[in-house]
Automatic annotation (TrEMBL):
EC number: 3.5.99.2
Residue span, Thiaminase-2/PQQC domain: 13-222
Function, in words: Catalyzes an amino-pyrimidine hydrolysis reaction at the C5' of the pyrimidine moiety of thiamine compounds, a reaction that is part of a thiamine salvage pathway.
Extent of the signal sequence: none
Pathways involved: Cofactor biosynthesis; thiamine diphosphate biosynthesis
Name listed for the protein in its UniProt record: Aminopyrimidine aminohydrolase
Length: 223
């Protein structure tokens, strides 16, 4: 699965840490069904809090956007996060007896705090591209994971989660976010991102966010 040329370059520059994220043992155990349910629920509760902050971060992208197209696109992601992705968590946790109020009142783990505030800071202290490169590993990494797990044909209790990220709707979103990134780079930097003075900092942001995704999976295995 490829989601545009900018993502491909950033992913390559991240080196083995990208594989650590997308092939983490949490992910492999979601795929083969051996992940304990307690670990999955712990992850979902933390992820619900994560998504609240990511909704803020995509809202900040609306404010940092340079064009109406960028604004409209990011506003659409905010809507999808608040009304769709978070509802998946409410439904899955509800089945396990955890209600929405309990989700909101859960205590944030430091790994979660580190990641979400890092991304928000990228947006507050930087521009639209800084924010988008910090957001990209989250969206596109889950795209790769969902795509891979949905084709491995294993039966697992986590099939609904896999179907969400491996399904056509989410894969389409990833293609669009990849294109948003390519267009944003083309409009601000030009054809050759890797040759621009901003490459090192943008690549570092992407790699740091990827490291924080690895930390999030590690946290998931440690309820
Ligand atoms: C730790 C963690 N990383 C990535 C995602 C996936 N995700 C988060 S925000 C977003 C934007 C578009 O819906 C997507 C796909 C997650 N849920 N939790």
């Amino acid at each position: 699965m490829t989601y545009g040329t900018t993502f491909s370059a950033l992913r390559k520059a991240a080196g083995p840490i990208w594989q650590d994220y997308t092939h983490h043992s949490f992910v492999e155990r979601l795929g083969d069904g051996t992940l304990p349910q307690a670990a999955f629920l712990h992850y979902l509760v933390q992820d619900y809090l994560f998504l609240i902050h990511f909704s803020r971060a995509w809202s900040l992208a609306v404010a940092k956007a340079g064009t109406l197209d960028e604004m409209r696109y990011c506003a659409g992601v905010v809507h999808a996060l608040l009304h769709e992705e978070m509802q998946l968590h409410v439904a899955l946790c509800g089945e396990a007896g955890i209600n929405a109020r309990q989700l909101e009142q859960a205590e944030e783990r430091p790994e979660n705090l580190a990641y979400t505030r890092y991304v928000l800071d990228a947006g507050y202290s930087g521009d639209f591209l800084d924010l988008l490169t910090a957001l990209a590993p989250c969206v596109l990494g889950y795209g790769e994971i969902g795509n891979r797990l949905s084709h491995c044909g294993e039966t697992t209790p986590y099939a609904d989660w896999i179907a969400t990220y491996g399904g056509a709707g989410y894969q389409h979103l990833c293609t669009e976010v990849g294109a948003l990134l390519d267009t944003a780079v083309a409009q601000r930097i030009g054809a050759d991102l890797a040759a621009s003075p901003r490459w090192a900092a943008l690549s570092k942001r992407f790699t740091t966010a990827t490291r924080l995704e690895v930390g999030f999976w590690d946290m998931g295995l440690d309820p």
